[in-house]
């Protein structure tokens, strides 16, 4: 494995290890509504990759500013009243932690964490057009069979090739370290598979070309 | 067109069936191949030594000029298969371009009958090849008169025309490549690159040099814009005289006619290969995720096993108490029945009597 790839994967592994502390957390707005918080987009602060249209709370810039000021005030108040940990616990669900790990411009991984869910979006490198169509074909094929993976999202996040959604239920059913291993293994395998596919396609092409030209001799 | 053999396999099979039949067969078959080629085979019980083969197919035409049917040269080529066995019926059956009368009884003993029937099955390839050969001959004649090397446009399938241009030392064949899907373009482009690389290599120096370019080659200068707008570029083959010498001519002509089909078949097979490989890979990827579940299942099974053994050894509390009480009651009953001590009866009735509890649902009748 190339040194840069190892570093990239180690970084993702460590980040996932830190981010994957998920617990059950019912919705604070709607009763009996227990959904992945990372998908609901509770955006009070400006979040990269989210737009006003996609937020559940319709707000204009004025309301946003007012909300920001109010929430800052509330947090300070809570921090004074309780210890820091309690305060973080109370407001943790408001923040969707986003970590972007880039190997280069074409290869990156976005990890979005919330209290009860974790979303991992991957962008796989595509050096040329052949790799591009192979990646698209392969990842579309996998996305269409998402039920086999349990943690795979049917539609990737905009700007990425494939996305995973891990909830607290997945963490309860499967072991945490195994899930992390799966994600890292998946990334390695996708790279390897696309390179192998490209090579075998070229080899097939060469063989077919040889057979065609042989008929003229 | 996925079949690159000159002989049609299904036609060959039927003709061999007629030839090898011990009893005369009544056959009236219609065969359709590649969407545009149609065969009609007839054989009657009344005349078992004769069979009729009619063929309808799109003929090779020069661009906008229509084809004038089967020429004399083509007729000669067909007769050349085996003059004794094959006879051209004039006029051809309605709706068909050519009808052949086949005398299977006249197949010479010194010749292989299977080979002759294979040649008859390749009648479509023979017609096409002879048409192309004739056109190439005409091109040569025109060139010598005009001194120009204007390419001729050959149309076999309406959407897939190709160009042939006669140069002093070679014949240049240009294929404008068009594909429906973007992925097909990419796969085909990769194939053309390989074709170029193989053609350049020393091992295949005798093969016709091949060139692929996204822009039209200079030979096609002046051709209409619609014909030059492609998404797969242009593939050019330089056919030298040695490639069309003697028996090679038929092969070369057939390969050039089928080049489009060859590329499309390769694209289709490659797509299938990718799909197969992806399916295989899916299983191995899922396996990684399924492993922890399997391990957990094994673990839970093991724990459940222990519980069962415990159950067998230990009895539940209620049953244990019932058993104990039952033994105690039995003991009292034994005392009651076996021991007869005078004066002890009153004591027993008062202190050792088991009280009877009346149900709330029942009632006692009062005197």
UniProtKB/TrEMBL annotation, chain A:
Q: Which locations, inside or outside the cell, does it occupy? A: Cytoplasm, Cytoskeleton
Q: May I have one GO cellular component term? A: Arp2/3 protein complex
GO: which molecular function terms? actin filament binding
Domain of life according to the entry: Eukaryota
Q: Which residues cross the membrane?
A: 69-101
Gene Ontology BP, a term: Arp2/3 complex-mediated actin nucleation
- UniProt keyword terms in alphabetical order: Actin-binding, Cytoplasm, Cytoskeleton, Membrane, Transmembrane, Transmembrane helix
What family name appears in the similarity comment? Belongs to the ARPC4 family.
**What PANTHER family does this protein's entry cite?**
ACTIN-RELATED PROTEIN 2_3 COMPLEX SUBUNIT 4, ARP2/3 COMPLEX 20 KD SUBUNIT
> What is the name attached to this protein's record?
Actin-related protein 2/3 complex subunit 4
Q: Which organism is it from?
A: Acer yangbiense
From TrEMBL, chain B:
Q: Which domain of life is it from?
A: Eukaryota
Compartments, as annotated in UniProt: Cytoplasm, Cytoskeleton
**InterPro entries per UniProt:** ARPC2, ARPC2/4
User: What GO molecular-function term can you cite, just one?
Assistant: actin filament binding
> Mainly localized where?
cytoplasm
Pfam families attached here?
A: P34-Arc
Q: Per the UniProt entry, what is one GO biological process? A: Arp2/3 complex-mediated actin nucleation
Question: Could you tell me what this protein does?
Answer: Functions as actin-binding component of the Arp2/3 complex which is involved in regulation of actin polymerization and together with an activating nucleation-promoting factor (NPF) mediates the formation of branched actin networks.
What's the protein here called? Arp2/3 complex 34 kDa subunit
**What's the source species for this entry?**
Acer yangbiense
